[in-house]
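One thing: mind reviewing this one?
=====
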Amino acid sequence: MKSGPSASDARALAWEILQAVEAGGYADALLGHRLTQSGLATRDQALATRLVYGTLAWQGYLDHIIAAFSRRPPHELDAPIRILLRLALFQMCVLSKIPDFAAVNTAVQLSKSFRGGSVAGLVNAVLRRATTEWQQVTFPSPQDDPIGYLATRWSHPGWLVERWLARYGFDETEALLRANNEAAPTVLRANCCKTEPAELLARLRGAGCSADATTYSPFGICVEHAGPPERLAGYTEGLFSLQGEASQLVGLLVAPRPGQRVLDACAAPGGKTTHLAELMENRGEIVALDPSARGIERVARMSQRLGLSIVRAMVADAAEWRPADVLFDAVLVDAPCSGLGTLRQHPEVRWRRTPDDIAGLAALQQRLMLHLSEFVRPGGTLVYATCTLSAEENDDVLASFLHAHADFCIDDPRSLLPDTVRSLIGTDGVLRTFPHRHGLDGFFAVRLKRRVTPGIVAA
């Protein structure tokens, strides 16, 4: 792409970021980096963020509309122009507060920076037609082709819709798909070693930030904030971290106590690691592993900013790492997964995952559980968690592990949890959250206890 309009324009910046995502980047990281450099006003940062996430989430729906007005199907268009048409149509067909002429005119002007403006006519023609006719575009019949309808209308890959349709039925699948296309909230976790959630909430509101306590996590605060978190009141003092509400519940499920020895086997970027340290009142030891040196650096930086000294961050592959004659009171396996529960935050993931990915990840998760369970002391805790809705990565991994390990059993966590969280635990003792049911990312987490063998005293 040749140099185009200034990045001070929110739409130009969104187009630039979307092209980088198409090339393999991740929207959250790209937005965090580019917004910091952009100099955009807060309102324009919010617009750029909404345009990026929304265009990615609605990509399949938008391509269906493009196909109705373009002589060439979307996959045959140059990637920058395909993305530009999606960006404009998202504003026209999904957002309601942006005038059509603003979306069309900006897209045409941006297209002039590509290939000397030779495609400006195509962009103009497609969008002008769509302005008056997009509502007449037909979709597959929900009765005759439910998979095609749900996949196209709610912008998810067909293979994923097919799986969820078989598991949840039509109405609930449609509700889930719709929820996945909504913008994820920005959630903070109050650092209980330094402040109380109510105090942090009052400080944020006093600084002019729109903020409210979360529904389930007692440490969570939902904020309306478009810029970098460093600009929020209390960040430099280490009063909070950014962590999704469902993710915060995993730490509560581990329920570590001060003075314990804990292993966080897949620790980066550090949200759950630091939450465990805070719950332990910064007393004891947490060994945090991750194969990525950059990821471990993030864990260490976050721990330092929050004033947590008990975290020992190490670059290591958890599937092969072994401690030196040490067992742990608690082991957290926050396993690498398909991320299909976090499509609100990472909408591009839906277009990148394949069924083969799920099979490969499930095999990895089983290896991790079998290996890391060795390091749980008798009477100790093993927590398995994912941020996906895939049964192969959740229920099947759990069943396979329990079948192979009679020395572990599900430990009902409800007595350890705040009242707000207990309702999320099923009769099987497993935590499951859903975007359409709870307004949370889709998480699966289970607390297991290692039985004490007769004749062996638990530490």
